[in-house]
Amino acid sequence: MSEPLVEVSGLTVEFPVADSFVRAVDGLDLTLEAGQALGIVGESGSGKSTVAFGLLGLHRGTGARVSGSVRVGGVDVLRVDDTELRRVRGELAAMVFQDPLSALDPYHPVGDQIAEVYRVHRQVTRRAARARAVEVLDRVGIPDAARRARSRPHEFSGGMRQRALIAMALACEPRLLIADEPTTALDVTVQAQILDLLHELRAETGAGLLLVTHDLGVVAGSVDQVLVMKDGRAVERGPVTEVLGAPRETYTRELLSAVPRVDAPVPVGGSSTTGGDALLEAVGLRREFGRRGARVTAVDGVSLTVRAGETLGVVGESGSGKTTLGRMLVRLLDPTAGQLRYRGQDIGALGEKALRPLRHELQMVFQDPVSSLNPRRSIGESIADPLRAAGRLDDRRIRLRVGELLERVGLDPEWYHRYPHEFSGGQRQRVGIARALAPEPRLIVCDEPVSALDVTTQAQVVELLGELQRDLGLSLVFIAHDLAVVRQVSDRVAVMRRGAVVELGTADEVYESPQHPYTKGLLSAVPVLDPTEATLRRAARHPVPLA
Amino acid sequence: MTGYLARRFLGMAAVLFALTVIIYAVFYVAPGDPAQLACGLKCGPVQVRQLRGELGLNEPVYLQYAHFLQGLFAGRDFSAGAGVLHCDAPCLGISYRTNEQVTDMILNRLPVTASLALGAMVIWLLLGVGSGLLSVLRRGRLTERVLTSLTLAGTAIPVFIIGLLLLLLFCAYLQWLPFPTYVGLSQDPQQWFWGLLLPWTSLALIESAKYARLTRSSMLETLAEDHIRTFRAYGVSERRLVTRHALRGALAPVIALSALDLGTMFGSAVLTESLFGLPGLGRLIVSSVNILDLPVVVGVTLVTGFSVVLANAVADALYAVADRRVVLT
Fold first, then answer.
1. Is the peptide bond before B90 cis (omega within 30 degrees of 0)?
2. Band of the pLDDT at A431, cuts 50, 70, 90?
3. What is the distance between the alpha carbons of residues A428 and A258, in angstroms, rounded to a whole number?
């Protein structure tokens, strides 16, 4: 047996922070044999991406302190000179980056960018490089590749950009593909396609794969070996079936149990008040954006009911109109047409003044807890704002109430004067929830409240929402792209596609016996944790076995 | 595209209209008597009163303004002493002091100022963007520190000091260049160039310092973006990263700022113009403000305003060419 494709031993990476260093990776060892696939799994801050970057020597020149040894294809990455290192990058090992919109140069056509990379490593003419770019774009399934090669990244959809990045990685036929969260920004159906593509390409080219992700479901069907990381160290490693099937370490077990499942929901909140009265009713709700030629219909005639004390889940892929619908339900957006009845009263066309007494009863929790809190106001002040706006309490009472609310969402009341940047993502989302609770609402629309959070934090926030609903009798509208989370929290579920609700029913009905083909497609694309099951599903998606 | 141009044109007209209104209002409340100033010290009260009548200064300010607009769109007649002076549209009026048509005065001086501003811009962009790039490519080394100190010095020194030093060095001490005199481009291109070289350089040295710093900071920002990391991870060399991938993004603020600077230079390069004896718009407007020569002030301000708005429209168009994501609306 020759030298492994990747051999990392005692890798330690430290980043400069103010006067000291923070250790992101702490003495990590890993090996990857040629043609094998290894998944590195961990929550944010576990150091998984730092390891991936280290394989290409990308910490060089950044001020980071790197020690240990990294060998890729026999090259000592940490010690070779810059010219030699540039040869490794793209030629021997190529990286498929995360977040496809910002990972490509916005100013140049996609094909030219791939051709450029090709010409760095191969002495070929511009024309030959362009031809190669078209070839790889075609290989990753870009339709009409010769023409689309001339498009710029913003003219591509998210899935196509991710394909283009994979094409770039393939250009020089590297022996190792390093994929850093390659599907994080994508919808489930597109995610499934991209993972299938990576799988196929590996079978075809015999390249090794290092897949870095926070999503255990992504790993299940795509790799042979798994390495679980936490705080810069390896917690557990082994064949994927063993690590996911019979984890030895507590941390791995916690991680696995926190992952919401589509097939086996753990009921949260436990409200069975599906028979409550209608609280909010939408009838033929419609919203258009833009004018004349550029008019887009975001929500196209949606009718649904939110009952008192229930959770209505709204799932859909990006662009399906779920956020627009959510904002209309609390009248943050005005409907273009249709009716919105709140406790029997039509509030869809109500003026701002007439609406004001009802405002506090309809609240919203936003997706991004970082940008939805004012960074220059303490969290206590942010929570107090809606109370001040209501103007019913004096300052001393407001302070008391904010303290109660902080305690209610599991934060220390003493933290009133702290600022958002001092909190973790999960804590910030708790602040967002406390702010929504402050004016004692009857209905809260939660727009992707947990999609920016790690699985363990996600589970805690979902738990909190369920608890609050049970204790306060709230109605929740829970908007998410993650089908598993929605199943976990919802009594009833609405599936949205292109601005319309294609299916609406109780969670069990929708998930167990989906009627609409779109719902069926969505459900079959959800990654599963069982590697064997994942392989079966992949086969089902591609009835003809792929070469 | 036509919609964009139409909107842009309307916006420009609105800005220029507002400018004229503001200037008339300011002149109305400003102290001092234009007739007295135009006539000079030797004039007695009778002559001043007569002149005031001739200049139309006895009319209420809104009527004066209405006459101005009438002149602009339809032309107007002025009683000059005994005869009548006709001024075709677009007529910006006649100077209170010299009875010259303002349009002519501006047209005589515009080529001077335009030569100065455009030439200086070419130099400051070359110098500024060039040294900004150099300091990025050599970051952390001696070159960068030297360039940073030089650009700091450049921003700190006033133009008349630099200009004076250049004059002393090249014209008086080394005698490499003649003392600058303005010769029109159409008369003798070579003399035009040599005459303007020092004014261009002194103006550009000051401006380029600003551009070097702007280029450097916006380049560093662009270099930290994700797509740069992508190409670095594919073995693209640092120099190519800078010139091919980062430069285009980094130049956006440079384009925007040059447009503003170029536009403003059309009425405010007065220090440079005075120092080098260039008969440009900057000197014209300063001398006219001093004697409250309203028609000239309005005229020059309109030209300056027009050039600012025009330069910005051009910058926006350049944006859209450089970055295809930008849609002009």
1. yes
2. very high
3. 19
In the predicted model, what is the mean pLDDT of residues B141-146? 84
Q: All domains of chain A, ordered by start, with CATH?
A: 6-258 (3.40.50.300), 278-361+441-528 (3.40.50.300), 374-440 (no CATH)
**Per residue in B243-297, pLDDT tens?**
888 888 888 889 888 888 888 888 778 888 888 888 888 888 888 888 888 888 8
> In chain B, what are the domains?
108-291+311-322 (1.10.3720.10)
**A330 near A507, Cβ under 8 Å?**
no
Contact with chain B for residue A184, Cβ under 8 A: no
Query: Which residue among A108, A117, A152 sits closest to B234, beta carbon to beta carbon?
Result: A117
Question: Cα–chain-centroid distance for residue A520?
Answer: 21
Average pLDDT over residues A98-117: 86
The dihedrals phi and psi of A536, each to the nearest 5 degrees, come to -60, -45
Q: How far apart are CA B217 and CA B253, in angstroms?
A: 10
A-interface mutation test, from B136, B234, B243, B319, most A Cβ less than 10 A away: B234
Rounded to the nearest 5 degrees, what angle is found at the Cα of A104, between the Cα atoms of A99 and A109? 140
A99 — contact with chain B (CB < 8 Å)? yes
Contact A168 B234 (CB under 8 A): yes
Query: How far, in Å, CA of B264 to CA of B261, rounded?
Result: 5
| Interface residue A86 vs chain B (CB under 8 A) | yes
Whether B235 and A88 lie within 8 Å, measured CB to CB: yes
DSSP 8-state class, residue B89? S
Query: How distant, in Å, are the alpha carbons of A2, A5, A400, A539 from that of A33?
Result: 9, 5, 60, 25
CB contact under 8 A, A97 and B229: yes
DSSP annotation string for A351-399: -HHHHHHHHTTEEEE-S-TTTTS-TTS-HHHHHHHHHHHHT-S-HHHHH
How far off is chain A from B321, nearest CA to CA, in Å?
10
Alpha carbon distance A503, A36 (integer Å):
41
* Strand-strand pairing, B83-87 and B76-80: antiparallel
- Among A58, A102, A117, whose Cβ lies nearest the Cβ of B227? A102
Indicate whether this complex's ipTM tops 0.85.
no
What percent of chain B is predicted at pLDDT more than 90? 7
Percent helix / strand / coil, chain B, rounded to 5: 75, 5, 20
Mean pLDDT of A240-264: 86
In sequence order, the 6+-apart residues with CB closer than 8 A to the CB of B10 are none
CB pairs under 8 A between A and B: 73
Q: Say if residue A128's pLDDT is above 90.
A: yes
Question: Do β-strands A278-289 and A296-307 pair in parallel, antiparallel, or remain unpaired?
Answer: antiparallel
Interchain CB contact of A161 with B (< 8 Å): no
Euclidean distance between CA atoms B28 and B286, whole angstroms: 18
- The whole-model pTM stands at 0.78
The 10s digit of each residue's pLDDT in A479-532 is: 998 888 898 889 999 999 989 999 999 998 999 899 999 999 888 888 888 888
Contacts of A116 in chain B (CB under 8 A): 231, 236, 244
Q: Is the pLDDT of residue A272 over 70?
A: no
Q: How far is it, in rounded angstroms, from Cα A89 to Cα A95?
A: 8
Instruction: Assess A58–B contact: CB distance below 8 Å, yes or no.
Output: yes
Task: Please report residues of A whose CB lies closer than 8 A to that of B234.
Answer: 89-90, 94-95, 117, 120, 168
Answer yes or no: do A106 and B229 touch at CB < 8 A: no
